[in-house]
């Protein structure tokens, strides 16, 4: 089923917007300028839909426990968010986390990014994969699947590595703990990837096998490239100026050099990864958010 903005907005069913302008400023990404109107028209209906799905799952678990005459541990509901570099996955994830945590049925919503399961740079260098960071082979897929499986089993505390975009590497000896949340939002390039993307993986379980509802954030390739270059230019004047930043050298470039460099990175790495590994998973998603200019969602597709 496909909905335009007006049709989709009408499905929020008078759900009140509980985010303020100040909240939104803290949630949006470096390259996005989302309005409260966008949150109201697109993300509120989505949070209502997800709330209904979570309630339905909770009811099914109650029925199962009644049938088995048991009281099993609560199992978190897992939402996967996939899409290209620079499409705004992280912002979508943060907004949904904020909205869903305001529903009384599931106040504890945890956000985890699969970036933490990238192999450390030292490992990537040894495998000659630094130029393919973000491609399926650059992830420790077994560790990622084990992490999601542990969450879905209802384990009390599960830890994941932390990735730093400043150092462009996994932070040694640092972990984030996931402790029995109501909902886990799992955001990353590879949330919907399968055996096609990991032909050498000896197991046949993948992240998508544990995801209850999946979202693909989509946009045309020319827009994605434009957004990536814009984001690169903003990082050049921001995070890249930190002497500890992995990409500190880019802060010394002229704007023309930076644009050329960003375009080259997109054409040789991110654009290739998009076409070969990310976009082919799009139709596996339960819902597709299609973005147009200014990161505004132009249409929504919901699988029947």
Can you describe this structure?
There is one protein chain. The protein is α/β, with parallel strands linked by helices and 304 residues long. It is built from eight helices and nine strands. The strands form two sheets. Strands 1-9-8-7-2-6-3 form a seven-stranded mixed β-sheet. The chain has a two-stranded antiparallel sheet with strand order 4-5. A hairpin with a 5-residue loop joins strand 8 and strand 9. Helix 7 crosses helix 8. The model has no long low-confidence stretch (mean pLDDT 88).
SSE layout and pairings?
Layout lengths: L1 E3 H5 L11 H7 L8 H33 L8 E7 L5 H12 L8 E5 L7 H6 L14 H12 L5 E7 L4 E10 L4 E5 L25 E6 L2 H17 L17 H24 L8 E5 L5 E6 L2
Parallel strand pairs: 2-6, 2-7, 3-6, 7-8
Antiparallel strand pairs: 1-9, 4-5, 8-9
Helix pairs in contact: 3-4, 7-8
Structural class: alpha/beta
Instruction: Tell the overall outline.
Output: globular
Tally the helices.
8
Largest sheet: 7 strands, mixed
Q: Percent of residues in helical segments?
A: 25-40%
Low-confidence stretches: none
Report strand %: 15-25%
Give the rounded overall mean pLDDT.
88
Biggest sheet, spatial arrangement of strands: 1-9-8-7-2-6-3
Tell me the span between the first and last alpha carbons.
7 Å
Count the beta strands.
9
Succession of helices and strands: EHHHEHEHHEEEEHHEE
The value of Rg in angstroms is 20 Å
């Amino acid at each position: 089923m496909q909905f335009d903005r007006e049709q989709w907005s009408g499905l929020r069913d008078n759900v009140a917007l509980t985010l303020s302008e100040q909240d939104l400023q803290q949630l949006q990404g470096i390259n996005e300028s989302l309005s409260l109107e966008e949150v109201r028209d697109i993300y509120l209906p989505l949070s209502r839909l997800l709330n209904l799905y979570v309630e339905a799952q909770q009811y099914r678990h109650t029925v199962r426990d009644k049938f088995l005459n048991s009281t099993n541990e609560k199992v978190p509901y897992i939402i996967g968010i996939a899409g290209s570099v620079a499409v705004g996955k992280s912002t979508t994830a943060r907004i949904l986390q904020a909205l869903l945590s305001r529903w009384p049925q599931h106040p504890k919503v945890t956000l985890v990014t699969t970036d933490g399961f990238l192999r450390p740079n030292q490992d990537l260098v040894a495998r000659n994969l630094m130029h393919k960071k973000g491609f399926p082979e650059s992830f420790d897929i077994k560790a990622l699947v084990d992490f999601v499986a542990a969450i879905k089993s209802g384990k009390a505390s599960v830890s994941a590595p932390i990735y730093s975009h400043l150092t462009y590497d996994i932070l040694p000896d640092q972990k984030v703990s996931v402790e029995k949340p109501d909902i886990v939002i799992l955001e990353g390039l590879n949330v919907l990837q399968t055996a096609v993307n990991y032909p050498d993986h000896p197991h046949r379980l993948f992240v998508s096998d544990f995801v209850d509802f999946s979202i693909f954030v989509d946009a045309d390739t020319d827009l994605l490239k434009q957004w990536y270059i814009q984001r690169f230019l903003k990082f050049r004047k921001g995070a890249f100026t930190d002497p500890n930043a992995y990409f500190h050298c880019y802060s010394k470039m002229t704007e023309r050099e930076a644009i050329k460099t960003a375009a080259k990175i997109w054409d040789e790495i991110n654009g290739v990864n998009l076409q070969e590994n990310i976009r082919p998973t799009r139709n596996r998603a339960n819902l597709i958010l299609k973005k147009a200019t200014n990161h505004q969602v132009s249409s929504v597709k919901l699988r029947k």
